[in-house]
Design goal:
By secondary structure, this protein is α+β, with helices and mostly antiparallel strands. The chain is built from 16 helices and 27 strands. Helices cover 30% and strands 29% of the residues. The radius of gyration is 26 Å and the shape is globular. This is M61 family peptidase.
């Protein structure tokens, strides 16, 4: 067994004291590996930058020399059998759903940030002992007592959270004997009972459609913050959601946003936590885990998270389409689909998947992926099935057995259930290919009795010249416009004449006057949904 002791002496210092002790049965090299990334964010996090005072001692208390063999791997030679201990400090000073934070009110830890994996001994159970100034209120580890916890392996340990705090509000509900706990850290400015009832209905609908829930107990941990924040991270036994400012949740729009991220993260209990590509099963936190399936993990979940707010009755069709309109609008103003397939963009999350990239380099696996998922759903509904039913098939084939899928094996299942739907043609155009999914949605949405319309608001710069502004500065230029040939991002537009004459100040200090040639094409439409007469496919879609 590997023993982890986590303690906090001075909460305001934000340092966590970590001690790891373990038995070595034979002399040899021992490696301590700190994860370089975490599940749910496929990009390096470099947690090693938060480590200081690393030291190793043997069973007699003597210090053992060690060396770093990479930025996040410490190694030492165990000359004799016996117990060894490793100690270090971890700075817990980042508050978001996937990080760790200590202050004068709480100790909140994502254990993947701060716990090292021990290599060089036989795989074994992990035991965690806590010494915190506040009682542990919630953890997704198995409890031994109020301060001791257990994980069957490092994989479970790294997928777990601990929250110790002076005060927290706790509510719960049950669905099919599954206990769902909701923990609220911070001030609640919304109707908690309405929220719990709505969340329970989402859980009921999901469990009904999948036929089961993967765990016996699940924890929603809400960090309701006094400053602007929005983030969620999935774990097998729960999720952490950070949202702020908490007071903004008085606004129904923000309350709906909190419901949206909660539904999204709950869907991950199946898709990601269980239904997972082979490249991520098990996670290897010491290196990048590349996969082309990122859009399945996040795009399908983004679409399904919103769809289940509709299916559970929390959203009306109009409210669902309002959210979808914002996604379509965002995707329509980016042209990454011309330059990278959604598969390439999934692979490249490790490059720049969570930051602003160079113009039109890649697709957004969340937004573009959600629209691809919607298109698939429409085609499957037209075939008498649905994407919800297909994901139940994926659950039975892969998730329930924790059997990772290959890209081709996942889609082979879709091909099996398709009758009229030319899935491979769709795949080659919109998944491995580089065609606009919005244009395709315009063609197929009438199957649901919904029309996607383009509207031009007579905005001369936007619609006629293909230029989007942020304030007075150019933030986007349509690649098919003449303006793309002469303007730069960041140019400050000083004056615009009705004939397309622009006075521009550039960041390099130069000023220019341009006569922009108008195109017969209008650019950057505003997209709107029109609800028309219902169809059998729409009725099944919303059930």
């Amino acid at each position: 067994m590997i023993h982890y002791q986590l303690s906090v002496q001075y909460p305001t210092s934000q340092f966590l004291e970590v001690s790891i002790s373990f038995q070595v049965s034979a002399p040899g090299k021992i490696s301590l590996k700190l994860p370089i990334w975490r599940a749910g964010r496929y990009q390096e996090a470099n947690y090693a930058k938060f480590i200081r005072d690393f030291a190793v001692k043997d069973f007699s208390g003597e210090e053992v020399p060690f060396m770093k063999v990479s930025k996040a791997i410490w190694q030492f030679e165990a000359s004799k059998e016996g117990e060894y201990s490793v100690k270090y400090q971890f700075f817990a000073g980042q508050m978001d759903a996937g990080s760790s934070w200590i202050d004068d009110e709480q100790v909140y830890l994502n254990l993947v940030n701060c716990c090292m994996e021990v290599n060089g001994i036989a795989p074994t159970e992990c035991q965690v002992q806590t010494r915190f100034p506040y009682p542990v209120k919630v953890t997704t580890l198995d409890s031994i007592n109020s301060n001791q916890f257990r994980a069957s392996s490092f994989q479970q340990l790294a997928d777990s959270t601990i929250l110790a705090t002076k005060q927290i509000m706790h509510s719960k509900f049950e669905v099919n004997s599954i206990k769902f706990h909701c923990w609220f850290k911070g001030d609640i400015y919304f109707n908690k009972y309405e929220f719990l009832e709505s969340l329970q209905k989402v859980a009921e609908k999901l469990i009904n459609d999948f036929g089961m829930f993967p765990e016996e107990e699940y924890h929603f941990i809400f960090q309701l913050l006094p400053y602007t924040h929005y983030h969620g991270v999935e774990h097998r036994r729960g999720t952490v959601i950070t949202y702020g400012p908490a007071e903004s949740l008085k606004n129904p729009k923000n309350f709906h946003e909190l419901m949206g991220i909660s539904s999204h993260e709950l869907y991950h209990a199946w898709n990601v936590c269980r239904i997972r590509p082979k490249a991520l099963l098990p996670y290897d936190f010491s290196v990048e885990n590349y996969t082309e399936s990122g859009w399945i993990l996040e795009g399908i979940t983004s679409y399904m998270g919103d769809l289940y707010l509709l299916k559970s009755g929390f959203w009306s069709l109009s409210e669902f389409l309002d959210k979808l309109q914002r996604t379509v609008q965002r995707v329509s103003e980016d042209f990454g689909w011309r330059h990278q397939s959604i598969l390439e963009s999934s692979f490249d999350t490790w490059v720049d998947g969570y930051q602003k990239s160079i113009p039109d380099r890649r697709q957004n696996i969340y937004s573009n992926g959600a629209l691809i998922a919607l298109a698939m759903d429409i085609h499957l509904l037209n075939d008498g099935l649905s994407l919800s039913e297909f994901m139940q098939i994926a659950w039975k084939r892969f998730g329930s057995k924790m059997r990772g899928y290959q890209e081709y094996s996942f889609w082979r299942e879709a091909e099996k259930v398709s009758r009229k739907f030319d899935f491979m043609g769709f795949y080659s155009r919109y998944i491995s290919g580089k065609e606009s999914i919005i244009e395709h949605l315009k063609e197929i949405l009438p199957i649901l009795g919904i029309k996607l319309e383009e509207d031009f608001q007579n905005d001369y710069l936007r619609n006629n010249l293909g230029v989007l502004l942020e304030g007075a500065s150019v933030k986007k230029i349509h690649p098919d416009s003449f303006a793309y040939q002469v303007l730069m991002l960041g140019d400050e537009i000083k004056n615009v004449s009705p004939k397309g004459e622009l006075e521009v100040h550039r960041i390099n200090g130069n000023s220019y006057s341009y006569k922009i040639k108008e195109s017969s094409t209008q650019f950057f439409p505003e997209y709107k949904f029109q609800i028309e007469q219902g169809t059998p496919q729409r009725e099944k879609w919303m059930q």
